[in-house]
Amino acid sequence: SNPDYDTRISVFEGTCEVLSCIDANDDYCSLQSRMDWYAQLGTEYLIMVHGYSASTGTFRLTMDCISPPSANWLGGDVSFGDPFAPNDWFGPDNWDVGDVPGSLTDVTIPGGVSDFPTIDGMARCNSIFVESGGSLLDNGLLTAPAGITAERDYLGNFWHLISSSVTGETASTFVGLYLQAHDEPSNSYSDVTGLTTVLEPGQGFALWDPIDGTASYNGSMTFSATRALTRSAMGFNNGWNLVGNPFPSSIDWESTGLTKTNIDASTYCFDGAGSGNWAIWNGIVGTNGATQYIASGQGFFVAVNDAQTTGTLGLNNGARIHHNTVFFKEEPSDIVKVKVSGNGYSDEIIIYFRDDASTGFDGKMDAHSLPSLIDNAPYIYSMGNDNLAINVLPEVVPVPVNVKVGTGMGTFTVETVSNGGFDELFLEDDVTGIITDLNENPYIFDYIQDIDSRFVLHFGPLGIDDNTTGLSTIYSFEKDVYVVVPKGTKGIVAVYDVMGKIIVREAIDGPKTVVRLEKSGYYVVKVQGNENITTDQVFIK
User: Fold this and answer.
1) Are residues 193 and 302 in the same domain?
2) Domain boundary residue among 191, 213, 235?
């Protein structure tokens, strides 16, 4: 360039009618004007050489296409005395190139490192690639013109609940796979057929792929998301809303970065490739490995309160957390957790007792039991007004428990994961009559279909008495069974036919409980109250 001529280079993209200046450089009368920019494949650019004086001369314009520099995050690889933290984006030793990424750098954040980057200052790069298992916290201070790609690996031949980790991705990223949206009023799924359907931040989907794969989300960073939730009717089958983690990092369900309006406390994540059942967290404890931390790209269900018709879930940056910094709290010592396993899958229930609990469903404590999405996976639940995976009760009473196996069969094992401090924890099988102390041995049984209530869990010492003890009196007259118990007795009356099939199960209602039976024949009546069991046989005319 001519030093007497103030040269300027400007680069534009677009059409002649609507040009957009990408960048420019002024040489301020030096010998060279130079600029770099990231060129997109298939895009035409207009390069203008101009200046600010009338001088003339000969100028040479050269262009080079160079591969953008790359930088891989190391994390935690800092030396003694290094002023930068192991998760600091601006720490040179945290990068494999020994320097902080520049505006043209393509950045990769791998999974499996000890620390992940947090951006607390003005940062620039060309693009960000967050591998499956990686994590990034950007507090709105990163400029990345080419956007972000976040990935999540998954196992094939299972249903997965997923959610986009970026803003702007569409269903085209899952072309050829089964992607489904959930409808709350019908509590059903429908195929997403439009490839341009936007995967809204915070929206959950169900995904099926017959082989192992990787969900790859391309777009821009998400800094907040709000989901409007509904409940179209009262009852167990309504109020379920499929939502998701919208960030390229985990979220803390108990953090102040979430706004929960008119929704129950629990989250429901499907663990198809693991236990084959739902990982449920109620704010205190979790089944099947559930915690308060929800992974990047994870979809999950929440339920709108039964008394409400709408709800809201809001997520902002304050909800995010690097999963490697998670501090896992110990479960309370008085939690009873029981597991059923078989056919390669397992499920858990949790029961504990609190003075402020109720016998009915309480969305602040209890969590519903959801059937497995895998036909031969067993799922276990405690019984009452609702089938519950997490059941919090106001006092210690026997709790009915059942196991279902969809369309499958098999031999299954019930065992204790934690006994809640009870020296004895008895599982009673109403079909076989076998009573097992789960603190001593697991219980193995063959599954029988069409039994709606099979087990009772007893907490503490168990007394087994017949009707000669005077604790309960059982007799029949015409079509009615009468059960008379001491005042203040709490428990359950169960009536079985001679084949062992349960006909009636109901709570003891005062000193005298009357059960109506329309069909003639012999029946076995079992009264469970105050840790005592009374049985007798009656005849109904």
Assistant:
1) no
2) 213
